[in-house]
Amino acid sequence: MSTGVRCEFVTDARGIQIEMVGSVDSSPVDVEVDGVRAIRQQILEGSNLFELTLPEGEHLVAIWWPQFGMTSVGLFSLSDASSVRSNGEQRPRWLSYGSSITQCRTADGPSETWPALVARKNAWDLTCLGFGSECHLDDVVARHLRDTKGEMISLCIGINIYGAASLSRRTLGPRLVGFIDRIRERQPTIPIAVISPIFSGTRESTPNNVGLTLDGVRGVVVHAVQALQSSGDDATHLIDGRDLFSLEDDPKLMPDGLHPNQEGYALMAERIAPRLRAVYDAALAG
Asked: How does the average pLDDT of the chain come out, rounded?
């Protein structure tokens, strides 16, 4: 699964042809030309041939690969091209870690996940680490974030830990502190926004197999961030997930009671973009 992965280049080609193999649940491919979506191509199970005619002249092309499903890319060709070069634009790199709510399977397309919308709004270069059901503060992810140069990190923490009961009230706080300390080994000043769980219906007050409610998970996350801040880490910040999606929001925006739909993700992006921008700008200001 390739959430957030895209291919960007500048070309004067008149056409693009891509051979792909999709799975039964593959999300579509989005292609943007000069920042505007030109086509959204559904990917079917098995072999697919994708073709797009480009307007005359030189254009910036961004191909967003499916955010869900197993999709492989075969032959990738450009027709009538005299020039192809990488996009030389330098944007701040944002590393976004989270669960399926960050992966955004239920978004209409890969360019409209909430991380993609935020990256476009804030002019950031997105690296999305949205792992469906697998956001458990694993050390391999902490080491990857530590070793990947960036200018901004966000961590959406809690919903998978609650659902799988993978950490308890005793172990969640230390694990989160240790996760961030691992990142700080090589990126001591990078701004980190820790985002607690968004609102999620009955999970808020229903204990899981280790006795934690989702609201209890949120409380442990808050306490861990406060502990880091009190020990001198002024580059780690807290964003309350309920400010992004709350009890007051229309339940139709979260049809399954867990994952927002496209309208819900757009609302999340609208709310979180300025909050993340404020964290980033505060770090720049010193």
From this structure: 97
Dihedral angle, C-alpha 30, 255, 153, 283, nearest 10 °: 110
Tell me what pLDDT residue 1 has.
66
DSSP characters over the chain:
--TT-EEEEEE--SEEEEEEEE-TTPPPEEEEETTEEEEEE---BEEEEEEEEPPSS-EEEEEEPPSSS--EEEEEEEES-S-EEE------EEEEEESHHHHTTTSSSGGGSHHHHHHHHHT-EEEEEE-TT--S--HHHHHHHHHS--SEEEEE-SHHHHHHT-S-HHHHHHHHHHHHHHHHTT-TT--EEEEPPPP-GGGGT---TTS--HHHHHHHHHHHHHHHHHTT-TTEEEE-GGGTS-TTS-GGGSTTSSS--HHHHHHHHHHHHHHHHHHHHHHHH-
Share of the chain above pLDDT 70, in %: 100
Give the global pTM. Answer: 0.96
Rounded Cα gap, residues 88 and 271, in angstroms? 30
In tens, the pLDDT along 154-212 reads 999 999 999 999 999 999 999 999 999 999 999 999 999 999 999 999 999 999 999 99
Comparing CA positions, the residue from 115, 137, 142 lying closest to residue 127 is: 115
pLDDT in tens, 10-38: 999 999 999 999 999 999 999 999 999 99
The phi and psi torsions of 67 (rounded to 5 degrees) equal: -80, -10
For the sheet with 36-41, list strands across it: 36-41, 29-33, 59-64, 6-11, 84-86
| Domains and their CATH numbers in the chain | 6-86 (2.60.120.260), 93-285 (3.40.50.1110)
Distance CA 140, CA 2 (A): 18
